[in-house]
Amino acid sequence: MSKFMKWASWPIALFITIIFVDSLRYKFTGHPTPEHIFTTLRDWSGIGLFYPAGPWVIGLAELAASLLVLVLPVVFTLKSSPRNAARSQFLGALIALGTMSGAIVFHLFTPLGIATPTEWSADGQTILAEGNLLFIMACFVWLGALLLLIWRGLQLKGGTRF
Fold it and tell me: What residue ranges are annotated as transmembrane (predicted)?
């Protein structure tokens, strides 16, 4: 099993990083989809920090998780420091799991819903199409982060190398 975990952790870390880094272009540029998501949560909760701060806070958390699950572990592995790679992936997976847990809860239990806008009018004011892909990807990232957290946690606890 440890040989499987040694190799499976890297594609999972790459998947999480691709999803997170790809989403940054939307969160950091004022795209209408994050604005819609976080203003919906702001209006529902009455917490003014959801927008405009929400996309930035979540984007920074996703960037940190990406660095911790993939970039730093690669550096540590190249420097022959597998224990530090495991620690980094464990911490990154913890951040990713927490971030995606929040996303999943907000999609399921608030007016946000599972379907989110996927296409906007040219002026960015009218939703032309909605889809479930954002929610589905959050679930896959959550599952990948959970697996990384368990595998790397076992490695750190037991001292096994993988």
Answer: 49-78, 90-114, 134-154
Task: Examine residue 52 and say whether the peptide bond preceding it is cis (omega within 30 degrees of 0).
Answer: yes
Please report the pLDDT score of residue 54 as a whole number. Answer: 97
What proportion of the chain, given as a percentage, has pLDDT over 70?
94
Q: Is the dihedral of CA 110, 115, 119, 121 positive or negative?
A: negative
Write out pLDDT tens, residues 54-92: 999 999 999 999 999 999 999 999 999 888 999 999 999
Contacts of residue 57, Cβ cutoff 8 Å, sequence gap at least 6? none
Distance CA 62, CA 68 (A): 10
Q: What is the largest CA-CA distance in the chain?
A: 55
For the chain, give every domain's residue range: 2-157
- 53-66 and 32-45 helices cross at what angle (nearest 10)? 120
- Mean pLDDT to the nearest integer, 115-123: 93
* Residue 123: strand, helix, or coil: coil
